[in-house]
Automatic annotation (TrEMBL), chain A:
Residues 67-261 form the ABC transmembrane type-1 domain. It comes from Occultella gossypii. Keywords: Cell membrane, Membrane, Transmembrane, Transmembrane helix, Transport. The chain crosses the membrane at residues 71-92, 104-124, 136-157, 178-201, 241-261. This is Carbohydrate ABC transporter permease. Belongs to the binding-protein-dependent transport system permease family.
Automatic annotation (TrEMBL), chain B:
It is a multi-pass membrane protein. The keyword Transmembrane applies. It holds the Pfam family BPD_transp_1. It is found in: Cell membrane. This is Sugar ABC transporter permease. It comes from Occultella gossypii. The chain crosses the membrane at residues 21-49, 88-109, 121-141, 161-178, 221-241, 277-296. Keywords: Cell membrane, Membrane, Transmembrane, Transmembrane helix, Transport. Residues 84-295 form the ABC transmembrane type-1 domain.
Length: 276, 302
């Protein structure tokens, strides 16, 4: 009886894992094929390999330039989140100051406001009022400090023993000094989780940069690839291969990063951050 | 959470707090929230109640207060009503599929099996990957001459999935379920780890089989997470944009997979009517709020 239950469990998980992994397999294999297959009999090709698809898609949307834009956009968000998110998280967890409860309530409220509602006013604000259309700053601003990351930092600092901080205070260290010499050196485990969680936001974001970048040389890869899929794909030879090549270029930095750092992507931490 | 911390400190707590520098530390985040959330939120409400148009920088034109006119326009627009119906179709498919599949898979993963981390990687990767990439893949898989139709052969739907008005929205729902499931599995895994082992042991002693333990221990044990999953799923369903924009080529066929956010984009940015677009946004948020409230009530009582 027991072994039977176990067997079913593995069968179920394997089936699900195959369903999750198959489109990725299809994407990578298709990206390197002269003509990506549509028939199940040729799902495991042995010949017809090529890198022409990457050349084709590159001719239309400048892969390197788009990747660089994605990278700048993502780095800006990561910097803002790590610096200001860490400060806010530390203060919320460890310092007693006026406005702490208000900040906490605001954080909970923000998680309930969908970005899409703010799309129109933010678009007006950023492109018309601040004149930041087609700029990296304009892309970064709405995502500059990831609220989930602030939650993760807060939970992390809260979980540290109170004595560590009390000892430093008794020794007469200033709050600035405690932050620099006690809190920041301890933060590394939370930092990796925060970087992973924050990275996927701007890297994968489509709607916002799509709204504010009309200049193709400023578009992150998600935007230029989407434009390629919806507008120009029809006019390329082997359009399917080119789409899959572009999709692979956009997807794989995240997939690889995640596979390397997956042990830091813990259910308990992220779960509690989402719940607040 | 603050009570224990304050009780330990001196009874005379200054108005600015014991460590007023905390306000300085939190200030950048507060400014960010004010600029990117609070101000636009108020601005969205302002736009929705006025006759607002885009102008060139520096030009001021009157934007008269028009009361509920924009809301009346929106609620009598068949396109808008259809987009809300489409979202309903999406939720009816997406929510039950997500709750059942993610809870079952999380339970299977949680039982201390081998290769758990390999399975987890496979489940999370679609969630972490850009929707634009994956939509590209699904578009080819579900195309007229795509792999899925080739496998189905004579059973393939006609017209094909993404250009069939009855199947476009269900296909999007299937795609989003697949893409997001890893995140919900993650939430359920966190919840499962908090169910005391003793509950399962005593259920086993009472002679409950695996299915009974799942229904009587696991399902009630993760109820608060199920409420969270329901609410997050409703929010997600209300915010679909990339999928109808790319997968069904702008909400096609003939608006059968148009979503409210797609209309906000089309009316607000493309047709330059930010006022009606903001009204759609506000109605959407109110509907989402009500649905979330219903979801949490229902889940509390049963």
């Amino acid at each position: 009886m027991r072994t039977k239950i176990r067997w079913w469990r593995y069968a179920l998980l394997t089936l699900a894992a195959l369903a999750f992994a198959f489109p990725f397999y299809f994407m990578v294999v298709g990206a390197f094929q002269v003509s990506p297959t549509n028939s199940p009999s040729s799902l495991f090709p042995t010949d017809g390999w090529t890198t022409q698809n990457f050349t084709n898609v590159n001719a239309r949307l400048d892969l390197a330039g788009s990747l660089l834009n994605s990278l700048i956009f993502t780095t800006g968000v990561l910097l803002g989140t790590v610096v200001f998110g860490l400060l806010a998280g530390y203060a919320l967890a460890r310092l007693d100051f006026r406005g702490r409860t208000a900040t906490w309530v605001l954080m909970l409220l923000i998680q309930m406001v969908p970005f899409q509602l703010l799309m129109i006013p933010l678009y007006v604000q950023v492109t018309r009022t601040y004149g930041l259309g087609d700029s990296y700053l304009g892309m970064i601003v709405p995502f500059a400090i990831n609220t989930t990351a602030v939650f993760i930092f807060t939970q992390f600092f809260r979980a540290l023993p109170q004595e560590v901080f009390e000892a430093a205070r008794i020794d007469g260290a200033s709050e600035m000094r405690i932050l620099r010499s006690v809190a920041v050196p301890l933060v590394r485990p939370a930092l990796v989780t925060v970087l992973l969680v924050t990275f996927i936001g701007p890297w994968n974001e489509f709607l916002w940069p799509f709204l504010i970048t009309k200049d193709v040389t400023m578009q992150p890869l998600a935007v230029s690839l989407a434009n390629y899929i919806s507008n120009v794909a029809g006019s390329t030879a082997n359009a399917n291969g080119a789409i899959l090549a572009g999709a692979t270029t956009l997807a794989f930095p995240v997939v690889i990063l995640f596979c390397i750092f997956q042990r830091y992507f813990k259910a308990s931490e992220i779960g509690s951050a989402v719940k607040g | 959470m603050t009570t224990t911390a304050t009780r330990l400190r001196t009874p005379r707590r200054p108005w600015w707090g014991v460590q007023p520098i905390g306000t300085l530390f939190a200030l950048p985040y507060l400014v960010f929230v004010a600029v990117v959330f609070l101000y636009p939120l108020c601005f969205a409400v302002y736009i929705a109640f006025h006759d607002y148009i885009f102008t060139a920088p520096g030009v001021t034109v009157p934007t008269p207060f028009v009361g509920f006119d924009n809301f009346v326009d929106v609620l009598t627009d068949p396109q808008v009503l259809q987009s809300f119906r489409n979202t309903g179709v999406f939720l009816v498919i997406f929510v039950p599929l997500t709750v059942v599949l993610s809870l079952v898979l999380a339970t299977a993963l949680n039982a201390g099996i081998r290769f758990a981390s390999a399975f987890r990687v496979a489940f999370y990767v679609p969630y972490l990957t850009a929707s634009v990439s994956l939509v590209g893949v699904w578009m080819l898989l579900f195309a007229q001459n795509g792999l899925i139709n080739t496998i189905l052969g004579p059973l393939a739907p006609s017209p094909s999935w993404l250009i069939n008005s009855g199947l476009a929205m269900p296909t999007i729902a299937l795609y989003v379920t697949w893409k997001q499931l890893g995140f919900y599995i993650l939430l359920y895994l966190a919840a499962l780890q908090n169910i005391p082992k003793e509950l399962y042991e005593s259920a086993e002693t009472d002679g409950a089989n695996g299915r009974q333990r799942f229904l009587n221990v696991t399902v009630p044990g993760v109820r608060s997470t199920t409420t969270l999953v329901l609410i997050l799923a409703i929010i997600l369903g209300a915010n679909l944009f990339t999928e109808p924009y790319l997968l069904t080529n702008g909400g096609g066929p003939d608006g059968a997979s148009a979503t409210p956010v797609l209309l906000i984009y089309q009316q607000g940015i493309q047709q330059q009517n930010p006022d009606t677009a903001s009204a759609i946004g506000m109605i959407l948020v109110i509907v989402v709020g009500l649905l979330s409230l219903v979801a949490s009530r229902l889940n509390r009582e049963t």
